[in-house]
């Protein structure tokens, strides 16, 4: 019998269906589709497909060859539909910004990448700038002072709710070089009184005075991130919490916190729910003081802390309130015993959505298998260490336990060295069970090796091509569970 769809081709699909299909493509791919035929060209250039645009080709964006080409795009293709745009330094001119403010009245999200700048364009004639911005991300240069540009936009950005200032932490050389304060935070805070989320990432000049400046004017502040700002010591934290009563999230990974400053905060009175103090060198006394006084902690990242030991966990269980905890990261906390961790997880494991116990050679698959039935609500798990072990990890048994015990799992990372993974010819069965029972699993990260190849091939045969990844290109984190996670994303 002849199929009723025998003569159906993609050309006969309704425009709205094609539009929906195109919406899953990158703009590079959409531009290629536009060359197929006139109908596809019309659909590809529909402004509804151009709501969010990156013009940074090195980060999967479109390459625009000239300012004239960009001005034409703004006028013809972007228009009122444009909500989000990323601009590299060579395309940030007063003419482009003027056109965006005129032709794109609904632009609410903007990223300006000055990170590779050796000099700025002349902004002395700039009279217009997008006025409806809620989110702005500025990637700073190490050497270019931003005040001339910033002075021109201060009057336009008082509606900002989310601000990212991204430093050059990852590019810094070992040698000590002169540090320039390339953006004036004290003036910027006066122009942005409505900020809810502030992310100051890897900026080498940010210190406690800058935190104090923002807290003096941003009374609606809910989330402050100063990860990799190593001049921050915590001396203004007490004032920050006194002023910012709504502050729920504080991320201070790899800052230079001083225990005395942290202990001076009136933690009993704070609304804080999410805290990252990873790699901050806080003392055991400080950690006990902190965790027994914060009344409602739901997210804690406290990895790479020598002071985090069994007595801290015990004090937290007995004198604190971990009953609302949903995410715990204790990466590389070598002074914690598996016995103390088992006791804590026996009591609180069932409430956890995310658990990271990586980087500890003494935590093997034995502890994980014993707590697996308790972790039945977990969405994120990170386990294992890249350090070569004297024992083997029986990964088939582990995968089977995860598959049968943690059906809601979304992200999993095994950091063990491939040489320590022991698996049999029946591995495929354990992987099959994991794939079939953990249907929400969207990311499985393994170190490159034979087991990775077996798992990857298994998922690809089931058309789940993006799930299995190597640790060289992916890392799993509890950050997905932060209340402001989507607001904190930048690239």
UniProtKB/TrEMBL annotation:
InterPro entries: F-box-like_dom_sf (IPR036047), F-box_dom (IPR001810), LRR_dom_sf (IPR032675). PROSITE patterns: FBOX. Transmembrane segments: none annotated. It comes from the Eukaryota. SUPFAM superfamilies: F-box domain (SSF81383), RNI-like (SSF52047). Pfam families: F-box-like. Residues 7-53 form the F-box domain. GO terms for biological process: positive regulation of protein ubiquitination. This is F-box domain-containing protein. It comes from Megalurothrips usitatus.
